[in-house]
Amino acid sequence: MFYANAMTCTIFVFTQQGKTYFCNNEDYSNPDTEIHFNPSENGKYAWVYLGFSNNWAQGGVNEKGLCWDWVSRGGDYEYSWKVDNTKITMMGNPCEKMITECATVDEAIKFYEKYNDRSLKESRIMLGDKSGNSAIIEWKDGKIHIIRNSSNLQAFGYGGYSVESYFSNNSGEKNIASFAEALNVAHQEGQYPTLYSNIISLSDGKIYLYKDHNYSEYIEIDYLAKLKGGYTKYKIIDLFKDNMHYSEILLKKQDSISRK
After folding, report:
1. How many Å apart are CA 215 and CA 50, to the nearest integer?
2. Which residues in 145-157 are b (16+ Cβ under 10 Å) and which e?
3. Is residue 258 included in any domain, yes or no?
4. Interatomic CA distance for residues 80 and 82, integer angstroms
5. Taken in order 29, 32, 37, 41, is the CA torsion positive or negative?
6. Is residue 205 part of a domain?
7. Rounded to an integer, what distance in angstroms lies between the CA atom of residue 219 and that of residue 185?
8. 2 within domain boundaries
């Protein structure tokens, strides 16, 4: 297993009996968080944006079941990123191009072999897809360095060791409640608290969304159905108001998970 020397965020991909789950704690200081649903345009894949109100997606998933998210290097820039003049440098967020054009981890890795991404200077990216493949991409020794999954669990970031410990000490079938518990033991408080957590079930096209490291309630989103509509975006805080009701979005309780 590989874990980043990170200040913020925990990501893991877990595969069991042909089902894959992409799980993330988003740790930061800005509570203004959003989720966007971007329909297919000009032959590109539809995709979900998770992140903040700065129009720079931190992570998400597309209609084909490819996911991504980032972990900060926490100020550890031992392997300084540099522009590779043999690659294409584009304006904006390269991940938004990647997620609309790639369907698998392998295709996303090829994308990073073709395009520069300045985010690698300060962060590492994790990818996961519906088939169970996952990979971490970082900048090391003057080039991209790829760590692929070698088991049914790949985890890294602030709480990577905690996630691995949780699964090694809890046998049996895993479900949404156990993934939430793993995120719970890995969450942060203080200067960079966990602002939201997401479990993306790639086998059934669902996102389970948690707010403010409270794992006793969650929003269940049928993202494949939601992506068939037009563009929509929501403040994550608004989705947790009991008087809010949206198609394909349900607020649910999960009493077995306690706040720690």
Report:
1. 18
2. eebebeeebbbbb
3. no
4. 6
5. negative
6. yes
7. 20
8. no
Residue with tokens 């584009």: 90
Residue 127 lies in a domain: yes
Q: What is the CATH number of the domain that holds 237?
A: 3.60.60.10
List pLDDT tens digits, range 30-50. Answer: 999 999 999 999 999 999 999
Domain containing 154 equals: 10-253
How does residue 99 score in pLDDT terms, banded at 50, 70 and 90?
Answer: very high
C-alpha 3/C-alpha 68 separation (Å) is 16
Give the residue carrying structure tokens 């590492």: 124
Domain count, the chain: 1
Is residue 41 within 8 Å of residue 99, measured between CB atoms?
A: no
* DSSP secondary structure, 59-103, as one string: EEEETTS-EEEEEE-TT--SS-----TTSB--SS-HHHHHHHH--
C-alpha–C-alpha distance, residues 118 and 123, integer Å: 9
